[in-house]
Amino acid sequence: MKILVVNAGSSSLKYQLIEMTKEEVICKGTVECIGIEGSKNTHKVNGKSYVVERPLADHTDAFNLVMECLTNKEYGSISSPNEISAIGHRVVHSGEAFTKSSYVDDAAIKKLEEIAPLAPLHNPASLACLKSCMSIVDCPNVVVFDTAFHSTMPDKAKMYAIPYEDYQATKIRKYGFHGTSHKFVSQEAIKYLSSKGKPSGKIVTCHLGNGSSITAVKDGKCIDTSMGMTPLEGLIMGTRAGNIDAAAVVMLAKAKGMALDDMSNYLNKKSGFLGVSGVSSDFRKLCEAIDNGNERAKLAYDMFAYQIRKLIGSYAVAMGGLDAVVFTGGIGENGARIRKSVAGDMEFLGIKLDDKLNESAPGGSFADVSAKDSKVSVLVIPTNEELVIARETKEIVETL
Ligand code: ADP
Hints:
six-stranded mixed sheet; binds adenosine-5'-diphosphate; 400 residues; alpha/beta; eight-stranded mixed sheet; globular
C-alpha cells in the first residue's frame, strides 16, 4: 500500500510517498513559492534531487506538478496516480470540530471550511490543497490534525480564564500543537520502556525546534501541553515570544503605536531567540554567539533552558510523578548542550543524565542517555510526523 502524505502551507507543499509494508519513504519533495515568483519543486528520490521550475498559480498547479514528478518516466516512482492508495493531509487546527483523524467526505469538508479561520495562515492552505488532490487523484483522503493528540486534555488544563460565554461563542481555549510528534515519540518511548520492564505511565515530551512545545503524557494520553489557542503560547522559540503577560502586550502596542496585526507579527516573527539575542532565530547560531561571548544570546539560551525545566517540574506535579523525559525536534535531537542544561542537576526529581552518552548521542537516532541509576529515563527520539500521518491514514482507509 502506497500512501502520499501532504503538508500544505500558504505558499508551499511538502510531500512524501510512503510504502506502508516496510514503512519506507519512496520519494519526497517540497514545492516552494506557490502563487509567487520563483515557484519550483525539488523532488528527491534515491538520494538524488530533481528541480522543476515553472510558474504555479495555486495549490492545484502545485499538486499537478507533484503528480508529474511522481509519475515521471525518468525518475518517477509510480506509473499512474492509481497506485496511490490514499492521501493523508496534515491540518494544523481542528478547533472543536474534530478530535481525531478523519476520512474526508462532504460533511468533513464543510467542517473544515468552518474552522479554517482558526489558523488563517495554515488551514485555508490545507483545504485548498485537499480540494486539489480530490479533483486530481481518485482515492480516499484523510485529514490528520496537529491538535488532535491534545484533545484528551481535561477542561481545567485547556480553559483560559475568560468569561465562559466568550469561550462558548469563539471556542478560544488551549488546543496545543505538534500533536503528531508528541504522539509518535511518546508511543516510541512507551514501546522502548516496556521492553526494558521500566515504567512509562508518566512521560514529558519536549519537542524543541524552530517552534517548541512540551507535553505531559499520562498513560499514553496528553493531559497538558505548552502551546495554546495558537502556537505562540508556551516556551520562548526561534522567533516567537512564548508566554507574556497579556496586559504587557496591550502596553507594548500602545508604546509602539502598533495595530493588532502588527503586534501579532511582532510576537510571532520578531521575538524569541531572534528578538532577545539580536543575533538569530537559529539555535546553532545562538550557541555560536554564546561561545563568542554574546551576553544577549546567553540570556535567550538561559531563558529557554529555564522555561523547559519549569515545565518539566510542573508536568511532573500534574501527573503525580515522572517516568521519562523525551527530547525530539531539531534542537532536542541534536542539542546535547541544551539537554545537559535542562536535565543536568535534576536529581531531586529523579533525573540523572549520563554526560558521556548524552554527548555522544548521534543526531537523528534513538538514544537512551540516562545514567544507569537514574529513576527517570532520559530519551532522545527522532520524530517522524509524516509516518504518523501515513499510519493514521492507512488505519482509517482500512476500515472503509
Ligand atoms: P522546525 O520546527 O522548523 O521543524 P526543526 O525541528 O528542524 O525545526 O529544528 C530547527 C532548529 O534545530 C534550529 O534552531 C537549528 O539550529 C536546530 N538544530 C539543528 N541541528 C542542530 C544541531 N546539530 N545542534 C543544535 N541545534 C540544531
